[in-house]
Specification:
It contains 19 helices and 4 strands. The protein has one domain. The chain has helices at about 5-15, 20-35, 40-45, 55-75, 90-95, 105-120, 125-130, 135-155, 195-210, 220-230, 270-295, 310-325, 335-340, 345-360, 365, 375-390, 400-415, 420-435, 445-460; strands at about 80-85, 160, 185-190, 330. The protein is about 60% helix and about 5% strand. By secondary structure, it is mainly α.
């Protein structure tokens, strides 16, 4: 690399000042890419359940990651890679299924929540609201979303299935009516003799073993290995091509870009959707900033992320961008910690990650078959859920005023199959229980505001 360019990069990104080097930043950025590249396959596959066309959705996922990473690198100068979030994509695809919303309206909700993120970040209100939530509640959100992703993975692979699968509809009819009754048992063990179910179990175990050995790109490698084994046994199809030009049919953005319905979501009944996306977005960002910041010496003496507004602004702008091009809520990925462990300390590492994502635009046909193989990508959901489950150890189970709303959050997310129900129920119960037990000192103006916002979900929204 020319000496002049090296000097410029060193000055602009403060590489030497932060104790890093160009080589270290590249290795860190490449490591981060390997650990989160699975999102290229998994995000479009999940969003397809909401009607998103999968080829344009794949392009939107990659373009969002490229945009977010470059913005984070150049503006915030932090080693925090950006892409569509896990959890939020599940909420968009599965959590809103009962409301029968078109994907255009769902994108509108992502856009509006992104605007709210941006305004609150610029006014420095977003950090205030995030910091008003107790640590136990924050960890319950992560744990609940992790278990929700695990349930989706188990169900999609067929390891767990509906208890009424294979039963005639007449068995569930209420006598004398045309209505179906609720089954006595909602779920049951799937058919473990089915080859594709066994492949999914193999894929999950392989990913776990690779994660245990700290193999870079463990989730991605596990997915591809499972897909190859499945192909050998006659399941799935080989790629039709390896290379294709992006932004041309079928890999163009026109079916999704600028198709969002903003006005359709600006109604009172859709307030719970906006509230949920808002809560999930800023909590995911906060958790990532604290987690990665601690690993990379980016926190001050009080444990707060230094110059936190810049990465929050990046998250907000990336969220707006993702909705415009046709993807779900985006933000900083906790997988960035892998790059930080390799020594990444500046935004240059994030730029390298973004450039690697950009290269993937030309190889989408190579990845396309994976998005149709549930037994290959669904185990990744279970693995991500497993990694998020560690948050349960940080919930204060000895304090019932903390444990009760935390349990309600987790249980309502899973058993009502809706992330919004868990977030809102937990935040409302938190304030109610603190007041009921006389623990007034534990609540603040921020927690009261959030509780009242969540209460509108149950009073005026459409809980489902």
């Amino acid at each position: 690399m020319p000496a002049g360019l090296t000097d410029f990069l060193n000055r602009y990104f403060a590489i030497a000042e932060r104790g890093s080097s160009l080589r270290t930043e590249f290795l860190g950025g490449a490591t981060t890419f390997m650990t989160m590249a699975y999102i290229i396959v998994v995000n479009p596959a999940i969003l397809s359940f909401a009607g998103f066309p999968i080829e344009p959705s794949t392009v939107a996922t990659i373009v969002t990651a490229v945009f977010g990473c470059l913005l984070m690198g150049f503006y915030a100068n932090r080693p925090l890679a950006v892409a569509p979030y896990m959890g939020e994509n599940a909420f968009i695809a599965f959590g809103l299924s009962a409301m029968a919303l078109g994907w255009e309206t769902r994108l509108g909700a992502v856009f509006v929540s992104g605007i709210a993120f941006l305004l609150l970040s610029l006014m420095k209100i977003r950090p205030f609201l995030a910091n008003s939530i107790s640590p136990s509640m924050k960890h319950s959100f992560a744990c609940g979303i992790g278990l929700f992703l695990t349930l989706i993975g188990l169900y999609e692979t067929g390891i767990i299935t509906s208890s009424v699968k294979g039963m005639p509809a007449s068995v569930l009819l209420v006598p004398g009516t045309g209505l179906l009754r609720a089954p006595d048992v909602p779920l049951k063990l799937g058919n473990l003799h089915e080859p594709q179910v066994l492949l999914a179990i193999f894929g999950f175990l392989l990913i776990v073993c690779l994660l245990y050995r700290r193999v870079k790109g463990a989730i991605l490698i596990g997915m591809f290995a499972t897909a190859v084994v499945g192909y050998i046994f006659g399941f799935g199809q080989a790629p039709e091509a390896i290379f294709a030009m992006p932004f041309s049919p079928p890999y163009d953005l026109s079916p999704l870009a600028f198709k969002l319905d903003i006005l359709g979501v600006l109604t009172l009944k859709h307030l719970p959707i906006l509230l949920t996306l808002f809560l999930m977005g800023f909590l995911d960002t906060l958790g990532t900033l604290v987690g990665v910041g601690a690993a990379g010496n980016m926190l001050d003496k009080e444990g707060n992320f230094i110059d936190v507004e810049k990465p929050m602004v990046v998250d907000a702008v990336s969220c707006i961008f993702s909705s415009v091009v046709g993807s779900s809520t985006s933000g900083a990925f906790i997988e960035s910690a892998a790059g930080v462990r390799e020594g990444a300390r500046t935004g240059l590492a994030t730029i390298f990650t973004g450039l690697l994502f950009a290269c993937c635009l030309f190889f989408i046909p190579l990845l396309a078959p994976m998005q149709k193989l549930t037994f290959a990508y669904a185990p990744a959901l279970m693995a991500v859920g497993l990694l998020m489950l560690g948050s349960i150890t940080k919930i204060d189970m000895d304090d019932l005023t903390e444990a009760t709303p935390a349990l309600a959050t987790i249980a309502m997310m899973i058993f009502s199959y809706n992330i919004a129900n868990g977030l809102t129920a937990g935040l409302v119960l938190y304030t109610v229980i603190k007041i009921g037990t006389g623990r007034f000192k534990d609540i603040n103006s921020g927690s009261v505001i959030l509780s009242l916002m969540c209460l509108t979900y149950f009073l005026f929204g459409i809980p489902h």
